[in-house]
Amino acid sequence: MRIDVVSIFPEYLAPLDLSLIGKARRDGLLDVRVHDLREFAHDRHRTVDDTPYGGGAGMVMKPQPWAEALDAVVRSGAGRADGARPRLVVPGPGGTPFTQAMARELAQEPWLAFACGRYEGIDERVYEHAAQDLGLRVDVVSLGDYVLNGGEVAVLAVTEAVARLLPGVIGNAESLVEESHEDGLLEYPVYTKPASWESAPGTTRDVPRVLLSGDHRAIAQWRHQQRLERTAARRPDLLHASQPVGALADLDLALATAADAPELMVLTRACWVGEIARYGMFGAGEESVEQVADDLTRWQTWVFRSGGRLVASVRGRLDPQDPATWQIGRLMVAPDLQHRGIGRELLAFAEAQAPAGATAYWLNTGAGSDRNLRIYRKAGYRVRPGEGSFPGTVDLTKRRR
Ligand code: JDK
Q: Whose CA is closest to atom 14 on ligand 1?
């Protein structure tokens, strides 16, 4: 794999000569070339930054040196047998979070280029130039939600994560095999000799006995339990994500109470950002927790949870004006769990909750919410002519069979 790095601090990348990456370079597995951005700044002071248009703090990196540097990197590959262009990775605090999945993806590329920004970042037109004029795939990536002073440390991290996945870079291929069955839990704690260690005068620390037992089943169980406990303590977000949700049946159902109101309010806003912006969504965007809780007394509201997190909800009631009509509302699935058919199942669930006397179902949606309308039509609903019960919406009905 070839890696080009452009930076105003080429010395910052010196660690790429060390350890596994340095060895991989010497073994010919990695071809790393670091370029000084200032070589492409031609004024007397080799200026690479200037003040931001529109005002604001700090400086912004000028487009011209960056364009010349990237052009030179791309040109340097002109004679490559694979005719390839590099994939450009630009660290930035506003980038896509860098993950092991992305490391695996990048490890498949024959050629990566990294652009290390400084100051407040790089003039946006450089990204356009790279993508549209040079034809590069450009990814802005973030190491995490904290602010560094520049992209160099991120490049060191990404390069290390990618390089260790290249065939031949890690001596012990088993280390990678073990990693490959990732299940979204943190690792178990590890121990080595001595089994009993005097860490301070009068204090001995023993390795957990089960690890010395030779009972492989018991060891596997203990390790799994440790992984669950650690994940719950340190990364509860992973615990939720590790619970696969493919259908409504995977979720825990309950009737909503006032205690669910805050989460319901958050779910409503998360699900309806688009609609709230377009229609004001009959006030759903500004509803207070008290109003949400108050609605629970007028509607039967069902909440569905995954790993404790409220991820879907729907409500229903008999029409106060027409007790033969079952009104269905607030059909919501958390954005990260949408597009797996849960909404459709939720609708069928809400219909099934209608009491015996109901002969028709009724619901209401934004007149321009095409996806919703398609789903409702497919489920047998028909749009009532004219405006719906709220401005900018339509009402839909379906006979109960
Ligand atoms: C590349 C310059 C510094 C500092 C503006 C951002 C919200 C506005 C850039 N994961 C991660 N963290 N930080 C980086 C990273 C920082 C970089 C560069 C990567 C190039 N900087 C910088 C401040 C801002 N500020 C946070 C408010 C932008 C990657």
A: 93
